[in-house]
Specification:
358 residues; alpha+beta; 2 domains; seven-stranded mixed barrel; three-stranded antiparallel β-sheet
């Protein structure tokens, strides 16, 4: 009986102690993520391995390949991390579509806690499909959404030396970006990743959804779907709160203007530059008032992301400014707003895609 009594006294204490340990561990991981993703400089590292074998392994059941990641610390010390890497994605992974497929970097469970990659498990690496310019443009789309909400994927621009250990291909250096893991986004927002089947758009957090859907309209992206989780991740805090839809994968957006991109024929638009609002039906445009107010408040910051980026060509910046001008003209004109954002109410126009094959 005494043993049971002691158990009743100390068992809650052990639980509380474990909670504190877990909380401290999560806090350390979030701080590490902040160091990795909030840095403003371009992170430079090298990936060395049998890259020909890795890049040619593009099947749905692709294998993991050992690859060595190396980078220099500020004190000039060399950091080496042995990774397991595989190809990922759909459209950009297809043979003949891109010279280099997107990669999934898997880190060892134990690594130097002082490394900038400390506490990382998996990171997506977005690599050039047909030129570095598209990578930089897509990275900036993530930066726009970071301005709009914390419930967004963080992305870090990097420069990577791709070195084949068998010398079967020349060493290449490219701009790429690493993308925050789904679970890390959820942890940062005190939530978890949720994967329901065929959840209606209306059953997500309405204010966050409008921010997201208007963002997709801003950048001219139609390649997404909440019910089919096409380029959408859902996070939720509990069974009472409605989940939040978080977008990713913007290479088919008009603002990226990739040469290989195009809208799905079912949408009835001719170019990926053509905007189409793909949210759910809202008959009262006053429901967008707070969202439009937010976008107006962020207008200068959004323009400045592009105007102050030295990696962009002058002609592209000029195009982006015109593209943004058209967006702001639309959302601040009552008639144009109703015409554009009212399209989901028209059954002859609104289409729910299962997602492009990409």
């Amino acid at each position: 009986m005494a043993f049971i009594f002691c158990g009743l006294i100390f068992f809650p204490s052990l639980i509380e102690a474990q909670k504190k340990v877990d909380a401290a561990s999560t806090h350390r991981e979030i701080l590490a993520d902040k160091n990795l993703f909030d840095g403003t400089d371009i992170l430079h590292f090298k990936l060395t391995g049998k890259l020909n074998s890795l890049f040619n392994d593009r099947s749905d059941n692709g294998s993991y390949h050992p690859v060595l990641l190396q980078y220099m610390e500020k004190d000039s010390s060399l950091v080496s991390i042995q990774l397991m890497v595989k190809t990922r994605g759909h459209f950009r992974r297809m043979k003949g579509m891109c010279s280099m497929p997107p990669l999934l970097l898997t880190f060892p469970k134990k690594q130097n806690n002082k490394s900038i990659f400390a506490y990382q498990n998996k990171l997506k690496l977005v690599v050039p499909c047909r030129g570095d310019d598209y990578v930089i443009r897509e990275w900036l789309a993530y930066k726009i959404y970071n301005l709009i909400t914390e419930k967004s994927f963080k992305a870090r621009l990097v420069q990577v030396d791709f070195e084949d250990s068998l010398n079967q291909r020349k060493t290449e250096t490219h701009y790429c970006f690493i993308l925050e893991d789904d679970k890390k986004v959820a942890d940062r927002n005190n939530a978890y990743v949720w994967k329901p089947k065929l959840l209606a758009m209306q059953n997500t957090n309405k204010e966050e959804f409008k921010k997201m859907a208007v963002f997709q309209y801003l950048i001219g992206n139609t390649d997404w779907s909440v019910p089919y989780l096409q380029n959408i991740v859902l996070i939720d805090r509990d069974s009472i709160e409605l989940p939040t839809a978080i977008p990713y994968d913007f290479d088919h957006a008009g603002i990226v203007d990739a040469s290989y991109a195009g809208p799905a024929p079912e949408l009835g638009i001719n170019s990926n530059r053509d905007r189409l609002y793909r949210g759910y039906c809202e008959t009262d445009m006053k429901n967008f008032a707070e969202t439009i107010k937010l976008y107006n408040q962020l207008k200068d910051s959004i323009y400045n992301l592009y105007n102050n980026c030295p990696l962009l060509s002058k002609s592209y910046v000029k195009f982006v400014n015109r593209y943004f001008d058209d967006f702001y003209k639309t959302i601040n004109n009552e008639r144009d707003l109703k015409q554009e954002f009212g399209k989901p109410c028209r059954e002859d126009i609104h289409v729910e895609l299962k997602g492009l094959k990409k």
